[in-house]
Every structure is written in C-alpha cells, then in structure tokens.
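Why does residue order matter? Because the sequence determines the fold. Keep that principle in mind as you read this record.
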Amino acid sequence: MGGVRRFWFWPFPFFCLAFLVAFLPLRAESRVSVTPGTIRVCLAQDVLVQDFNVEGKYRLVGPNGEFYAHVLPGERWQARLDQGGGLQFFKNGRLAGSYGSLVALKQARPAVSVLGGSGALKNVTADDELAVMSAGDRVSSLRISSGRVKAAGGSGTSEVQGSGELSLVNLVLGGRSQKYRGDMEFRIQGGGITLINDLPLEEYLYGVVPREMPASWPLEAQKAQAVAARSYALAQLGTYRAYGYDLLSTQMSQVYGGYNAEHPVSSRAVDETRGQVILCRDKPVSAFFHSSSGGFVENCQDVWRETLDFLAAKPDPYDRNSVHYNWEVTYRQEQLVNQLKEKKDLYNKEGQPERVFARVEDIKVLEKTSSGARVKKIRVTGQDTSGKPLAVELANADTVRAALGLKSALFELTKKTGPDGGLAEVRIKGSGYGHGLGMSQYGALGMAGQGYNYQDILKYYYCNIEIRRLD
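Structure:
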C-alpha cells in the first residue's frame, strides 16, 4: 500500500486536535477488492420532463462539481430536455438555469478539514470514509458522520458528526411519488433524460431486500437475501458502465424500490450482515436467486449457457409451498400460435428472414436438465404463414420457459388432438417459479423455519463458496 501520510484532524474551525489520519483505501482480506463507496442505479430512461423536490439540503452541480443552484425543502423543481439538447431546470415554475447534458443533484454535506504535515488543508465531507492510524500503527476505519477524536496530548475529546438529517430526493415516476436516499443525476442519453440514483451500497440494499423478499418472513431468511443481493450487486458492477450506471432498478438486475420500499426488519437484516458477501475464488459471485425451485435447483449450463462453479444441481427439500406448486397452463391451437409469435426472437436467427408459426403440429420434449426435473430442450414443428414447414429447437431451460410463457421449466405436458387428427390443445402442469438457479427464496423461508441461520442457507444453495465481510 506504500507509506502512510500523516495529517492533523481539525473538526470545523473551533479548535485544532492533533490526530493521525491516513487517506488510504480500506483494505479487504486476501485478494478481494474493496466495496465501492456508492453504487449507481438507473431509475428511468427517455424521460422528457421530470418533477422533483427534496427533504434536506441539496445543490445542483455540473460534471466537474461546479455549483449551479441550491435546492431546498418546500421548493418545486422540474428538469426538462430543451430543444438544444441540454438540460433546463425550473424552480417553482420559473427557469432557474440552462445547463449541459449532465447535472447532478447532490446532498450538501457538513465538512471537516484535515491538516497535513505540510500545512495543506483537505476538506472531507460527512459520511466519507477514512483510514485512521493510531500511535501503534494500527489502521482502522472512521466515518465522519459519527465519531470521537482525541487530541495528541491525550487531553480532551471532541464529537465529530454529520447533520443527522435524513436527506431524500422525491421523484414522480409512473404517476407515483417515490423517495430515494443519496444523490440523483440527470443525464441526457438517446432521446431523453436518464435518471441515476447514486447512493451507498448498504442504503441501496435497504430498498432491495423488502422488494425481493417479504419483510414478514423470518430474519435469517432476509439476512440470506441481503448477503445474496449485496454479492450480486458487487459482481455486476460495470455491466452498464458505458451508460453511466451500475445496475437497473428492475428484475433485469434486482428490484430496487428506494426509500418507500424500506422496512425496519429488512433494514436490520442488511445492518446485521453489513459488508458480508459470497465469494468464490476470492471474488464476489453473481448470487442468482429465484422465488421457488419446485423441489430442485439446477446447474447453470442447463438453464443458461455458461458454467458457474458456485451453482450446482441438487434436490431442494426445503422449498415446499402452496403458492407455486401444481400450477397448470392450457394452450389451445390459436393461443399457442400467438404465444410463439410473441417470442419469435427466440427462434429467428439474426440476419435470416423472419418466420413465425401459423399452425403448430407438435411439441416434443428432447432433453431434461441434470436434475431430471426441468425441460432443457424442445422441438416445435408446424407451418409458417406461407404454408411452408417450420421446425425449431428451443434449448436451455430458461429459453423453454420464456418461449412457452411459463412460471418455470419444471413441467410435464400432455397433448390433445382434434377431430382432424391435428394438435388441438397442450396442457402443461408444473411447479416452481423462476429460473431455478442459486437460492430459492421459498427454500430460504423453509430453512429459516427449521432453525437454520443465514449462513447455513447460503451454503446450501451456493457451492464452493465462503462468506466474508469486506470492510
């Protein structure tokens, strides 16, 4: 890490305390990368007009931190895409300013000053993380939002705190008012404004866990969900880097509901597992999870196409529920044709003429997954809209599930012929909900109900892993 630079710690301008502070990144164990300070979540895209207001004090700033305007509680603000391709901001109905293609709404954080040995001052905002080196050269972390510092002479201490005020941004999305912690970014992309919520990882999880798992479920199940969601978020960092954010707020990443979604029990699960992630070969894993396994979890290569060492097929005796078992779907000929037309992208190859089914003559199961429970490959035969024969094979369990519009690929099908001897109806009976990879949420519920803790749950559903805290 190199040598340690020593600084004096100077809380506000009241008095100077001699304290050793090192501006070092906080190290994790082994070869594991440290967690990011914040995570960036895309909330909406292609927005033309966005209303917002705040709780707490905020500032509008440019891409290099240049100050544009104060944003205070009680004010009505609106961001618009102007005809020149820039951003306009209106305050209480009046134009407050026209700016470039990127404007950030940032919390006005209290700050302290750190005095270096050379006499240079560095401002540090509340909630920033520092590494503090004691006289014995022991390094530990310090968050400026709360803490007590001691003078070098050993006499007297001073409290160092942030404002203690909860700052929130309130957006109107889909006709509903939604509150979010952290900062907000307005970025012009494509033909509209992209809204990006920039906030600490742990606070992001406050808004994820209760959206992914009912807050009424046992605490140990929610702790398992918190660790899985944290690991997934870290493993997915950089997926959307080209667009300026890390994750989406939908099921394409993880469902994130912001401050409105938070629940005390879910937040407790996040806090009591703070920083803990699932690692395989010293790297955070994309800890995929699903609602119900139907009694079996799968190898990744059977459901998608890649092989992941931490996902393996096995029976799941803990997933037992009346919600996602023994469901049935029946398709008559016309309904089946319409379903396959909807999913034509799954079987039409890029660059080839598009063909869709006008009639389905047969569906045949060709292969099952390693567990023997899910359907991995099917063949659909029939005629296209020009009356020519059309036969397609749909491979991998999640493709089969999507093509047939099912809750799960764990199913059996029966076929019924019509008076003309052709296929008239397909009846599908199955169990489970989701792709069947990694942790079953209903399985976590079952394990927690039997007295297992969150580490037991995670180690059952993920293989070749360790659970470790990243500081």
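The CA atoms of residues 79 and 205 lie 27 Å apart.
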